[in-house]
Structure formats: structure tokens, C-alpha cells
Amino acid sequence: MFEDKLLQLYQEMIAVALAKVYNKSDAQDVVQEAWVRILTKHHSLRERDKLQAWAKAITANTASNANRQSRRVLPSGDRDWSAGLAGARDESDIMLEIRELLDQLDPKTRALLLYKFYYGYKDQEIAAAWQVPVGTIKARIHRTKLRLKQWMTR
């Protein structure tokens, strides 16, 4: 029962982090950092029944700090920061739309795209793992990209 509550809290913290950062890896890093802060500052929580809201607030603040930190690391140059921030928010919206589109795909096709574009496997590596010809992998990727493109233009 307690583990279920912790798992639920973790999932809610991930959702908060995903809304604030630009990819799943960053969201997981943010939640990990938030857990460290929660564990080290647990004595400052006055009302135990507000743990969920407190954890989400810490997660949101940690995500904001991570975003601020990543902007400092980016090379400066002639870039207009206000345009860059607007572009980053657009990127977040695009990532959400991509996630929604991937959720519409069957699991096998979704896995294929993730292996190819998220994890960076080569067509030959995917074909060997799935024990199908490389041409089959290439054709499936091509057809799926076309289908996604059609879905996006609706």
C-alpha cells in the first residue's frame, strides 16, 4: 500500500517534470534531484497530508532550476534569448505532440521508431535483433514516417 502511494507520487512528479523540461531523460534527472531534496529537507514539511503538493512544488522548482542552468550552458552568440525561450516552449509542445502520435501507433511500430530515432540504432542492428531483412526495417520506417506526416497535417 505504501509502495503504491510512492509509485503514484513518483508518476505525478514525472508528469510535472515532463511539463517543464524538454525530454524524458531530463525529467527523470529532475525527479531524482527532487527526491534528494525531499529526503534531505523532510523535516521542513509541517503537514504530512500535504506531501503530494509539496513534492510536486519541489519538482517544479527543480525543473525550473534545471532549465535555467541549461540556458547558461548554451553557447551565447547572436541569439535573441526571448526568441530562444519561445522556441524552447514550442519544442516542448512539439515533443508532447510527438508523444501523442507515438501513442497512436501499435507497440511494434512504436518500438521500431524508438530504436531508430531515440536510441540511435542502425537499420542493420534493428534487423538483426528482430531477425528480419534490412529492407523490411527500412520500408516499415518509411511507411510509418509517411503515416505520421499524414496524421500531423490533418
Describe, in short, the structure shown.
The protein has helices at 2-20, 24-40, 51-73, 81-104, 107-118, 123-130, 134-152.
How would you describe this structure to a colleague?
The protein has 154 residues and is mainly alpha-helical. It has 2 domains: 1-77, Orthogonal Bundle (Rna Polymerase Sigma Factor, Chain: A); 87-154, Winged helix-like DNA-binding domain superfamily/Winged helix DNA-binding domain (Arc Repressor Mutant, subunit A, Orthogonal Bundle), CATH 1.10.10.10. It contains 7 helices and no strands. The protein has helices at 2-20, 24-40, 51-73, 81-104, 107-118, 123-130, 134-152. Helix 1 runs parallel beside helix 3 (51-73) and helix 5 (107-118) crosses helix 7. Pfam families: Sigma70_r2, Sigma70_r4_2. Belongs to the sigma-70 factor family. ECF subfamily. Keywords: Sigma factor, Transcription, Transcription regulation.
Structural class: mainly alpha
Any guess at the CATH architecture of the largest domain?
Orthogonal Bundle
SSE ordering: HHHHHHH
Number of E-state strands: 0
Please write the CATH class name of the largest domain.
Mainly Alpha
Mean pLDDT: 79
CATH topology of the largest domain: Rna Polymerase Sigma Factor, Chain: A
**Rg over alpha carbons:** 20 Å
Largest sheet: none
Q: Distance between termini?
A: 44 Å
Which range does the strand content fall in?
under 5%
Discrete helix count: 7
Counting structural domains, the number is 2
Helix content: over 70%
Gross morphology is: elongated
Name of the CATH superfamily of the largest domain: RNA polymerase sigma factor, region 2, helix turn helix motif
Which blocks of ≥5 consecutive residues have pLDDT under 50? 72-87
